[in-house]
Amino acid sequence: MTDTGTEAQFLAYLSEGRFMLQRDPISGRAVFPPRLRMPGTGTPLGDWVEMSGRGTVHAVTIQQKRDAAARAIVLVDLDEGGRMLSQMTGVEADAVAIGDAVQARVVADAEIPHVVFEPAKGAA
Amino acid sequence: MTGFPRARTAVVGASTFGLGECPGWSSMEMTAQAAYLALDDAGITLDQVDGLFTALPDDFLGGLALAEYLGIQPKVNDNNRTGGSSFLCHAIHAALALDAGLIDVALITYGSNQRTASGGLVSALRSSVYETPHRPMMPVGGYALAANRHMHDFGTTREDLAHVALAARAWANKNPEAFRQGDMTLDDVLSARMISSPLTARDCCLVTDGAAAIVMTRADRAANTRAPIPLLGGAQTVTHKEIAAMPDLTVTGAAITGPQAMQAAGITPDDVDCVQLSDAFTINTMLFLEDLGFCPTGAGGRFVASGASAPGGTLPVNTNGGGLSCCHPGMYGLFTMVEAVRQLRNEAGARQLDSPEIAVSHGNGGVLSSQATLIFGSPSTA
Fold this sequence. Notes:
The complex is a heterodimer of chains A (124) and B (382).
Chain A: H1 6-15, E1 20-23, E2 30-31, E3 48-50, E4 54-63, E5 71-78, E6 83-87, E7 101-107, E8 114-119
Antiparallel strand pairs in A: 1-2, 1-3, 4-5, 4-7, 5-6, 7-8
Chain B: E1 9-20, H1 27-42, E2 51-54, H2 62-70, E3 76-78, H3 86-99, E4 105-112, H4 114-118, H5 140-154, H6 158-172, H7 186-190, E5 194-196, E6 199-200, E7 209-218, H8 219-222, E8 229-238, H9 254-265, E9 274-277, H10 282-291, H11 300-305, H12 322-326, H13 333-344, E10 358-365, E11 370-377
Parallel strand pairs in B: 2-3, 2-4, 9-10
Antiparallel strand pairs in B: 1-7, 1-8, 4-7, 5-6, 8-11, 10-11
């Protein structure tokens, strides 16, 4: 991978279908959004590692624009660390609740590659 | 070092202009007109202004444009943009510059014609590549996520949220300047169109035109004006920009700025007679009342549902009707300052409180991102 800022690097990984984040070597937790150094301390960040994509819904709001289906906009806490704003797919918006176990899915083929979430398999 | 210059500066002029709809006026003209009215109120002429503070809605270099429009060459031109809290931050910076002798007269002014010019909310918020692909409706979505979490963690209900809107309307009905008046019921709020759950249209602020301005001087000079209101304390902070980065969805930076500003002023929440705060959404009022120390964390819903913040309550909040029922031209902070000053001057008409001595003004910017708190006193508290 060419030498770029971490934002471009993250998006480049996503465009290959890979959900990668940096880890804080001190806590071992993943950091989102990608940064040049650790937020708050300015200490070095570790190498990029592939995320499991497992997470938990921290908060949800349902939004509906004119002539479109209702969507669940969520904040998801990733198991490995980091909190992301995203949206739920594969589930009715009003069935999404705080505490739901969710699984990331990379949308690589988009103007801006991104990560959406769906209910985790086996979750009630 | 002694920290904040307690009571060493004062507001000597305050104004509002064009609240609601102000067709045919540019945002700059509204901003300038509010400034002229505040200077008239202070009995100070334009040529004495040497500190100019603004955050205009539609011009990145609005601070420069305003200096040109007014025809002055200020020593300090502060165009700090922290959203709706900008003007409270300006007041803190103005107090420091005045106290240091860098300037003698500070003018803080703002105007927006967003309602009649575009009919829609002017949003200068730019979202990151991490938020943009999800096309969330912001800023309402950020506040809705915080409300959802508050309900989950503390048992807050949609009815609790609605009581914030009802209290605001009850105050607005006493304020002839308020844009929205008339009876409103709990059901009106709950059955209004859902914008971003759990927030309905009635949980969201108005989209109006409006302008306001404040003039500040050092206390010695203020003593020669008709009704100086001393600035006793101030504090500001930033905790994040986008909602995903907010450290705790149910605790805002007001938990930092409130105690800090009150300590600077030498007061506690028990000393406060009224609170004027940024209520762009009903959840804001709850969060800020909790974080500023007027009720325990998580108890904001029960506090407002008890009627404590409404007319006749123990802690009057947003006595002008707030952003929910008085006006919201996009950035609300300066209106919290003007209403605090009017109450402390006993100039608030039908909504006047019984000789208040301490008023808290609290501004919010972004999605609960920037917080700034000011403590104003009456002349007897200086």
